[in-house]
């Protein structure tokens, strides 16, 4: 078995530190159609993923911008990833987790993950926001395969409370304060790129999944291995196994609810800065 490292190239660390121009506590990974938070950031410095040595080389998927932005949101310097690499694009889980590894390497302590997801639980509707309480890793992959663990340690990373209870409470308070509805849910991560069959959606329901998507899990596992605290939001773009689902429809539902997600994330960053 090949041994792997969660480290990132020093050139990437230097490039991002330079773009940030100072310390940043929070990194945000923006999923399909959710890039707007980065577009609105002040004093933004963008770095295309293609210019980062360690970022996996994958072709563009519509709705995924493919760059990171160092910017100021709610007065806080933050690191925003516009788009991510997915396992269905043929990358290893270790490489799909690159945003988390890079964020940890530049000193970020909190990772906010966002994604577009299918609703598995029957009451969920397109446009609903879900606060991720836990996940099911059904991707058949793990970014820590081949990782020996931290120096002198073991690779067995605890995943209880991977989605930080305190940060979840803060996200909920923030949503309540803004009058934004927020459901709680378990995120099932699947390999994709095909959507789920109706039988698979029934299986996911019986396993306790509330939403389903093709991302997030690798970066959350890597973030936990690197000691970051994680909070996650899913934007429900469709009912899983919905009739006539297209990638374009997923993006359109994203556009409509992205504004709410953006307000929530920005207010969360502001509150987080206050309790730091
Ligand atoms: N399934 C998996 N991933 C998704 C879906 C879905 O229905 N919608 C958006 N991402």
Short description:
The chain is built from eight helices and nine strands.
Note down, in words, how this protein is organized:
The protein has a single domain, classed as Nucleoside phosphorylase domain (Rossmann fold). Strands 5-8-7-6-9 form a five-stranded mixed beta barrel. It is α/β, with parallel strands linked by helices and 276 residues long. The chain has eight helices and nine strands. The protein starts with 9 loop residues before the first helix and ends with a helix. Helix 6 links the parallel strand 7 (183-190) and strand 8. Hypoxanthine binds at residues 116-118, 195-196, 212-214, 237-238, 240, 250.
Can you write the helix and strand succession as a string?
A: HEHEEEHHEEHEHEHEH
Q: Sheet bearing the most strands, described?
A: 5 strands, mixed, barrel
Give the CATH topology: Rossmann fold
Spans where pLDDT lies below 50 across 5 or more residues: none
Using the coordinates above, name the CATH class: Alpha Beta
State the helicity in percent bands. Answer: 25-40%
What small ligands are held by the chains?
A: hypoxanthine
Silhouette: globular
For the CA atoms, what is the radius of gyration?
17 Å
Question: How many domains make up the coordinates?
Answer: 1
Strand content: 15-25%
Q: Average pLDDT, to the nearest integer?
A: 92
Architecture, CATH level 2? 3-Layer(aba) Sandwich
CATH superfamily: Nucleoside phosphorylase domain
Helices and strands: which structural class?
Answer: alpha/beta
- State the end-to-end distance: 41 Å
Separate helix tally: 8
